[in-house]
Amino acid sequence: MSTDYQKAREDLGLRLRGLRLAAPGGRLTGTQLAERLGPGWTKVKVSKLENGRQTATAEDLRAWADGTGQPEMYEELLARLRGFESHIRSWRRQLSSGHKAVQDAATVEHERTEVLTIWENVLIPGMLQTPDYARHTFNRHADLMRSPRDTEDAVRARIQRQQGLYQQGRKYRIMMWEGALHSLICPPSVLTAQLHHLAGSIGLDTVELGIIPFSALLKIWPGNSFWVYDERLVVVEDWHAELWIDDADSVATYLRVWNTLEESAVYGADAHNVINRARRALNPPR
Prior knowledge:
- The chain is elongated, with a radius of gyration of 23 Å.
- The protein is of the alpha/beta class.
- It is built from twelve helices and seven strands.
- It comes from Streptomyces phaeoluteigriseus.
C-alpha cells in the first residue's frame, strides 16, 4: 500500500477519533460507540478505523457520523474517503458486485477522452478484444478475486465501449508486448480468432497499433499495463488494485515510459507479421 494512501487513511482515522471524543452527549469510548452502532461493530473495528488499519466504507462513515451525534459531518468524511479512494481502487471493493461496475467506470473516462494511450504486456487490450476472449479474462479474474460473476453484463459493457473505435475525432495509440499474443488465458481456438480480429484493427484510421517483438532491443523493461487518458489521468493495473494517477508529473512519467517502449515497436505490415507468427505457433503445420 502506498505511503500517500496510508497517510490519508490515518488522517481520516484521526478525524473519526476526534468526532468520537467530541460527541455532543459526552466523549464515547470505543466500546460505547461500537455498542451504539450495533451489529457488525466491535471495539476492534473502531480501533482499526481510527488507526488507519482498515479502510472505511461510505456506510461506515454514515453510521459513525450518526452514532457520534454529528450527522452533518458525513459529507466531509465521505469527501475525504473519495479523495484517496479515487487514487487507489482495490479490486475487493470494486468487484463487490461484479465486473460491470468497473467497466462502467472505465466507460465514463473513455467518453471524455480524445486520445487514449495504452500499454499492455500480457493481454490483448480490452478495446480490441473479441467477446469470447473478454469472457475468459473476466472469468479468470473473478476466480482469482473470488468476486461475483456478472460476466455477460461485463462483456457487453466492454464491447459497447469499442464503438469509440469508429468515432471520428478519437485516437487510440495502442502498444503491446508480443507475449500478449501468446498468453493462453483462453482456449487456442479463442486466441486464434482474437488474433485474426486484432490484425483487422490495423486498418482503422482511429488506431495506431504497435507490437514489440520478442527479438527487439529494449531501452526499458516491459512493466505493468497502463492507460493514459489524454494527458490528465493514468490508470495502472496491479494485483491488489487499480491506481488512478492524476498528478502532472506522474502522467508525464508514464507517457515517457510509453514513448521509450515505442522505440522498440513495429507497426503496419511488420506488426501483421508478428501477429501471423503468433497465429502459426497456435496452429503449426502438420
